[in-house]
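Hello,

Our lab assistant flagged a job as stuck in the queue for most of the afternoon. It eventually completed. Since we weren't sure the result was trustworthy after the delay, we are filing this so someone can double-check. Below is the sequence as submitted and the structure that was eventually returned. Let us know if re-running is recommended.
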Amino acid sequence: MAQLVKLLDYISRYEHDLARYPTQFIRLKKYQWDRMKRLWENGEDLTEWQRDKEKVETDVEPEETRWFSPLLRIFGKNRTSEEEEVQEVSAEDEDQFGFTPNIIYNPTNLPQLRRLYLDQLFQFQIKWASSTLMDKSKVDPRYMRDTLLRSFAQDLPDSFLLFYYPILVIKKAPVELDILLVTPIECICITVLEREELAAFIGSGDKFWTKKLRDQESKVLNPMIALTRMEKIVSGIFKANDIDFPIKKYVISRNGYIDYPGSAYDVQMVDRRNYAEWFAAIGKSSVPMKHNQFKAAQALLDIGQTTAMSKLVEMEEDLTEL
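-- returned structure --
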């Protein structure tokens, strides 16, 4: 799963310690999956997890529960050495690593089990990309249903760091970018061009492209404008921080066709004819995370705009309403 490190201007755990959270996320994800898979293979009723969790949370005093991970409350209190390693977290980390699968049915095969697990983990990623221990941002519900975001998060390698429409502060002004994938070897800039199913886009060097859908034609803003602007901003950030990191540019459309006469300099067009092949190709990367990748991602995070509120303030407001 690609790690969602920045979503719009939401507060993110990765902003505070980018060197720590990627490895912690990978370790937690693997541990939970291995344990869930093992229990399923042993014939355990996974729907009992939620009932067990609710029962333990009812029986244990609040002060005590703060020191036990929801993971252990589900799986029991007898720790193995692997569990000890995963649970090397403080009370502060409790909120950060409290991923609890909500199992509402028993999968009948391994692919179904994996999909159920990834869907649950995706919601956990949204939480990490919109909250810290003390603060949180209000998440637009549409991102929970965003199929492109879900696909990027679930089907790309753990070593990819995903910036999804991040808002950066450039010369004291907020600037919204499109999609950035900071991989171990390069930064991929992506502009999405999607409208109705099977729409065809005729590209040119003009400000507008032509969209054709059956016998109708209309104009859409040239996606190359936003893509070129994004590449210039990112390359400028890297240069200012003395970071030598390659940048690639893509215009993608999962459900439409892109017809660009001639060739666009240093830009690859990806549409429904070759999207699956392109996505599978970048998803095959087995390169581990690298130092230069962290430097590039950190440079972006350092100037990210953050809009959030204190969780304590939110709690006080909720109590006031009561």
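-- support follow-up --
The delay was a queue issue, not a problem with the job. The result is valid. Residues 51-97 have pLDDT under 50 and may be disordered. The chain has twelve helices and 14 strands.
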